[in-house]
Specification:
With about 400 residues, the protein is an alpha/beta fold. The protein has 13 helices and 11 strands.
């Protein structure tokens, strides 16, 4: 065996050990159960929205059907023409007894439109406990209780949740859900075991008003690509703990096509590469199938490399079945043939992410600076005071948000 054979053999063994460790982490996480909160503080749920992928109504409705005594849901868009407006209007009519509100405000405080949307929403929030969640997430009625219980300790600054992918249609959605369930979720749990959790996930971020004020509010992340990551990092830097709630949110995946999937995952990859470059680079060696195929192509121990590739295929196929069962999910046996395709595509995309600094977000082009800040490549400067359609104005009060 040549030196390159020994290096790639080591990488192949590392990938197998990592996958076994990741499965153990998933199993341990699945055994955790949410504890009921000792108190039930009133909660303001903030839902920044943009567009309707065909599943928005069901997603948002799940946040309205909460088994919790007092909460409000504030939905936000930045345009009256946004398709999400009709969905929110339908929910407001359907749940007249709930405190549901729609905020339409074009005010932009930075290049990250989601952060601007949240900054507009928080000015409307009546309560001092916030829960933020993206529009493509879906939950069950126990969601608020599970999140609030993890926020009760005063040393906890932020609570966040992991999520699993639920594909709705097409091969692109299936591939995206596989990435979430079989790489992102186990990887995040391994990371939380190895080191202290210092970042948050967009599936859910919960915090108190005073914590948000202490870290600078959404203005502090208004120009960052990884706004959710940065909120956790800022809280952690102030000595507050970021807690991972024992609750799994559903991410309803509805990718339009393979092209949109490519740009979506490239944005994820370059986000991770920017905020955690060393660990993201090391994560490329956890893909045992493409690593073994590279070994077979460039090494001298071809038979051993192909045998390793076969071992990795078997390990991944068996392991994913155990993973889905640990999460109480149906095992998608019919998509097993996609495992080598998914892993190889993720590896190639990960390598490609290091060659360039541009991303597309909602079909808008941005450049990501080395510090993680976004620069818009096509739009006019944001002045923070856009005009509104004739006869219409945002239903946001003029008073400034204390956060």
């Amino acid at each position: 065996m040549s030196p390159i054979d020994f290096v790639l053999l080591g990488a192949s063994v590392f990938a197998a050990l990592y996958w076994l460790g990741a499965l153990l982490c998933v199993d341990l996480f699945s055994r955790r159960r949410p504890t009921p909160p000792r108190s039930s503080p009133p909660v303001s749920m903030l839902k920044p929205l943009r567009g309707d992928d065909g599943h928005l109504y069901e997603n948002l409705r799940s946040f309205c059907e909460q088994d919790y005594p007092r909460f409000e849901v504030i939905f936000g868009v930045q345009s009256f023409d946004d398709p999400a407006v009709a969905v929110v209007d339908r929910l407001i009519r359907e749940f007249p007894h709930l405190a549901l509100r729609l905020v339409v405000d074009e005010r932009a405080i930075g290049t990250n439109r989601k952060a601007s949307n949240l900054a507009n929403l928080v000015r409307q929030a009546k309560h001092d406990t916030f829960i933020l969640a993206d529009g493509d997430m879906r939950v069950d009625p126990a969601y608020i209780r599970a999140v609030v219980a993890s926020l009760e300790e005063r040393t906890v600054g932020l609570v966040t949740c992991l999520y699993c992918g639920v594909a709705r249609r097409g091969i692109a959605s299936q591939l995206n859900a596989m990435f979430i369930n079989e790489w992102f979720l186990p990887g995040a749990l391994v990371g939380a075991r190895i080191e202290r959790l210092c970042h948050a996930f967009g599936a859910t971020i919960a915090c108190r008003r005073d914590t948000l004020h202490a870290i600078g509010g959404f203005d502090a992340v208004a120009n960052h690509l990884a706004d959710d990551y940065m909120l956790g990092w800022l809280a952690s830097r102030r000595g507050l703990r970021v807690a991972l709630a024992p609750y799994l949110v559903e991410n309803v995946v509805a990718e339009r096509d393979l092209r949109s999937l490519f740009f979506h995952e490239l944005r994820w990859a370059r986000t991770l590469r920017t905020v955690r470059p060393v660990s993201y680079f090391c994560s490329l060696f956890t893909y045992g199938i493409p690593v073994s195929l590279i070994w077979a192509g460039v090494g001298t121990a071809g038979r051993m490399a192909l045998f390793a590739a076969g071992i990795h295929v078997g390990l991944r196929c068996l392991g994913r079945a155990l993973l889905y069962r640990s999460l109480n999910r149906r095992v998608p046996w019919s998509k097993t043939w996609l495992v080598p395709v998914r892993d190889t595509a993720s590896f190639v995309l990960g390598v490609f992410s290091f060659f360039g600094h541009t991303v597309r977000w909602h079909d808008e082009p941005f450049r990501v600076r080395r510090d993680g800040r976004l620069e818009h490549l096509a739009a006019a400067p944001i002045d923070g005071h856009p005009s509104h359609p004739a006869g219409l104005a945002p239903i946001t009060p003029k008073s400034e948000d204390p956060a």
